[in-house]
Amino acid sequence: MSVFGKFSIQTPYKRVHGLGSAGAGTEHFWKQRVTAVALIPLTLVFVVVVILAAGKDYDAARRLLGNPFVALMMLLFVGAGVSHMRIGMQVIIEDYVHEDVPKIALLVLNTFFSIATGLACAFAILKLSFGV
Amino acid sequence: MADSPVRTQRPLSPHLQIFTPYLTMVMSILHRITGGALYVGTLLLVVWLIGAASGPAGYARVQWFMGSIIGQLILFGYTWALIHHLIGGVRHLVWDVGLGFGPEARENMARLNIIGSIVLTILIWVVALIVR
């Protein structure tokens, strides 16, 4: 018997997919929470890193950001961050933009922006780490 | 479908501007606004990291901007948005496990959020100015 009880009107086909009427299920809802939990400690580490880097010269900043632990934490922060912000912005767009064409255009731009910023940060962190 | 007579004659529920603002409502709006601000603020992180990865000259330009009055104001706003959204996120996670819905709990959490974000933001900047 399904979790919806024996009076569920869902067909067995719908039930095995478990994705609801939107067809996407709770994937975004859950991912938003997982990234949120990850971002609690990662944001605190990020703040400490920025405090340590503030006002320092180029060599000191490069050494700090090139430190393996710092670089890994920054990569995790950027990864969880852009994933979290992409879902958040998608919710905002879907709440306020109802016409299909502008909505889809903004959703695509949201994806582009999130991936571009994430990749730019990750590339810079890796370049600093490998010291080229 | 949208202009069928049945739809257009339906009564509409009052929209946001009908209600007198109250604390938890303001905090909900602030959570979304700070989230949107942090989305754009990711560009600051890109500029900082790419600047550091591009060499001493690039990093000097980034430091000049971040150190200017406008840069410092933007960074201060970013810090507050980050901390406010972080605490607000924890508030949401508390709600997700089914706690904090009581009339007192939700008001107290909202107050803690706004006061905590201001205090922590100032604290972070004081520490950053001492450490540098």
TrEMBL record, chain A:
Reported cofactor(s): heme
Gene Ontology CC annotations of this record: membrane
Q: Which UniProt keywords apply?
A: Electron transport, Heme, Iron, Membrane, Metal-binding, Transmembrane, Transmembrane helix, Transport, Tricarboxylic acid cycle
Please give the pathway this protein is involved in: Carbohydrate metabolism; tricarboxylic acid cycle
| Family annotation (CDD domains) | SQR_TypeC_SdhD_like
Q: Which GO terms describe its biological process?
A: tricarboxylic acid cycle
The name this protein carries in UniProt is Succinate dehydrogenase hydrophobic membrane anchor subunit
The protein's organism comes out as Alsobacter metallidurans
UniProtKB/TrEMBL annotation, chain B:
- Transmembrane regions: 29-52, 64-90, 110-131
Q: Which GO terms describe its molecular function?
A: electron transfer activity; metal ion binding
Q: Which residues bind heme?
A: 85
InterPro entries linked: SQR/QFR_C/D, Succ_DH_cyt_bsu_CS, Succ_DH_cytb556, SuccDH_FuR_B_TM-su
- Give the record's GO biological process terms: tricarboxylic acid cycle
Q: Cofactor stoichiometry and binding?
A: The heme is bound between the two transmembrane subunits.
- Recite the UniProt keywords alphabetically: Heme, Iron, Membrane, Metal-binding, Transmembrane, Transmembrane helix
Localization, per the record, is:
Membrane
| Co-factor requirement | heme
Pfam families, A to Z: Sdh_cyt
Keyword Heme on entry: yes
> Predominant location of this chain?
membrane
From what superkingdom does this record's organism come?
Bacteria
CDD domains from the UniProt entry? SQR_TypeC_SdhC (cd03499)
The free-text function statement in the UniProt record for this protein reads: Membrane-anchoring subunit of succinate dehydrogenase (SDH).
Quaternary structure note: Part of an enzyme complex containing four subunits: a flavoprotein, an iron-sulfur protein, plus two membrane-anchoring proteins, SdhC and SdhD. The complex can form homotrimers.
Descriptive protein name: Succinate dehydrogenase cytochrome b556 subunit
Q: Which organism is it from?
A: Alsobacter metallidurans
